[in-house]
């Protein structure tokens, strides 16, 4: 798969709520090449600090623009949040293995997104507009502050359900509380992205119900290209790099200690 390193202009940086930001880059070649589940590796500074790029899932790729949806958690992502319209960012991508396209026999597609893990499902739902399966998003946010409008998902024909830890919005509890809200079928396919405990819960649920699925994993990254092995995780097939062998893995391959 061709990887592109390019410098792209920031055309928009929007604060979505108290927690999340949305960054839009003018990047026609990248927008054309990227597939749902892949990520971009962004140099957030021209200086040596931070030295390494930071990985972000592609949230949307429409009309020559590439969008990411992010939460500033540390130095790098906070620098990204301070970008201005017109700034130019050095971006490597698209990187990693994308989600598998659901086959025609899949009648229900369930996206399970925990917090910022919802990001890759927007571009995925954009590409599935013609797929006849029912599409459902189970979104879990830690608090009311972590919730945001899911209107764009609804516009793409996705049914949405929300949970928050304290029940301030939607169902009280973790996103796994939402599993009971949907009628599953043997032809349901699950796609998950979020914190590790959530992924472990989704993998256990899928195994229990005999369902297939994939999960997009996160690890701290350096090279992003499969060279340093710094992002390796255990799988049933041995250690695999999240950046090159993943980030998307079959749910059955994942090993949670
Ligand atoms: C494939 C992939 C896709 C991602 N997509 C998104 C996205 O769409 N939106 C988004 O907001 N974030 C995403 N992330 C996470 C994002 O890369 C990290 O939040 C960011 O790199 C943190 O950098 P920092 O310099 O701000 O924080 P640092 O100062 O480097 O770290 C701050 C804290 O976050 C922890 N941390 C850093 N990176 C990760 C990570 N990858 N996983 C778990 N904890 C981490 C550190 O251990 C530390 O506790 C993704 C990560 C991966 C691997
Ligand atoms: S970050 Fe270097 S191998 Fe994944």
| Shape, principal axes of CA atoms | globular
Strand content: 35-45%
Spatial strand sequence of the major β-sheet: 4-3-7-1-2-6-5
Structural class: alpha/beta
- Beta-strand segment tally: 16
CATH architecture verdict of the largest domain:
3-Layer(aba) Sandwich
Topology-level CATH name of the largest domain = Rossmann fold
**How many discrete structural domains?**
2
Class of the largest domain in CATH?
Alpha Beta
Describe this structure in words.
The chain is α/β, with parallel strands linked by helices and 257 residues long. The chain folds into two domains: 4-95, Translation factors (Elongation Factor Tu (Ef-tu), domain 3), CATH 2.40.30; 108-253, Rossmann fold, CATH 3.40.50. 16% of the residues lie in helices and 35% in strands. The strands form three sheets. Strands 4-3-7-1-2-6-5 form a seven-stranded antiparallel beta sheet. Strands 11-10-9-8-12-13-16 form a seven-stranded mixed beta sheet, with helices on both faces. The structure holds flavin-adenine dinucleotide and FE2/S2 (inorganic) cluster (FES). Flavin-adenine dinucleotide is lined by residues 39, 50, 54-57, 68-71, 73-77, 116, 119, 218-221, 242, 247.
Outline of this structure?
The protein is an alpha/beta fold.
Explain the layout of strands and helices.
Elements: E1 4-15, E2 21-26, H1 28-33, E3 39-43, E4 54-57, E5 60-62, E6 65-70, H2 75-81, E7 88-95, E8 108-114, H3 119-127, E9 134-141, H4 151-155, E10 158-164, E11 171-172, E12 188-193, H5 196-209, E13 212-216, E14 232-235, E15 238-241, E16 248-250
Parallel strand pairs: 8-9, 8-12, 9-10, 10-11, 12-13
Antiparallel strand pairs: 1-2, 1-7, 2-6, 3-4, 3-7, 5-6, 13-16, 14-15
The structure holds flavin-adenine dinucleotide (FAD) and FE2/S2 (inorganic) cluster.
FE2/S2 (inorganic) cluster (FES) is lined by residues 221-224, 226-231, 241, 243.
